[in-house]
Amino acid sequence: MKKLILSTALFISGLALVNAQSDSKDVQLGIKGGLNSSTISGDDFGDLDSRTSFNAGLVAEIPLTERLSFQPEVLYSGQGFDVREIDQDNIVDTDENIEYQLDYIQVPLLLKAYIVKGLSVEAGPQFGFKIHEEFDYQPNSDGGDIEIDSDDSYVKDFDTSIALGAAYKFDNGFFLSGRYNLGVTDIFEDGTPFEGVDAKNNVWQFGIGFMF
């Protein structure tokens, strides 16, 4: 993981040498939102179906040089995964999924480098604060929600990941973005039946935003 972080930092620094620049020298504030496709990965987990949810929040861009910016964000992020429900009588998959919902307030702290005008890449650490956890065995309809109290949860309240992405900003302030959040810490608490289980959050995010 240290090699990944170092390689990412060197890559961003190298891009800063190209002939590109930010579209503004002023601090900009904006809003963004979009789709999430999330799952849990690790050596102790098999293939899980992705949960589809959404993200939404606030973003700022603080120019450091003509080519580099610091971009902090505060986002709601719906995460977790789907589990295919098994019909025990027929030993076949049913049409229903059980959705395991892990919702976070995510705080990415990103370094952004412009490759050409409007087009940028971004990378940095992301810190997540769990705000909700539940099972939903009827995700396509009302009902079926089983909320998990924080005292009964095996999942940590705090999560850390690395965010890697790209964005394109138009002259009118709108922008498109795509990002992959790679979990670097296990999600399960110590001292629980899942202690030592390799399980990390992984999330694809795609969205649109506007800088004021």
TrEMBL record:
Organism: Olleya marilimosa
Positions of the Outer membrane protein beta-barrel domain: 19-189
Key words of the record: Signal
Full protein name: PorT family protein
Keyword Signal: yes
Keyword Signal part of the UniProt annotation: yes
Organism superkingdom: Bacteria
Signal peptide positions (record): 1-18
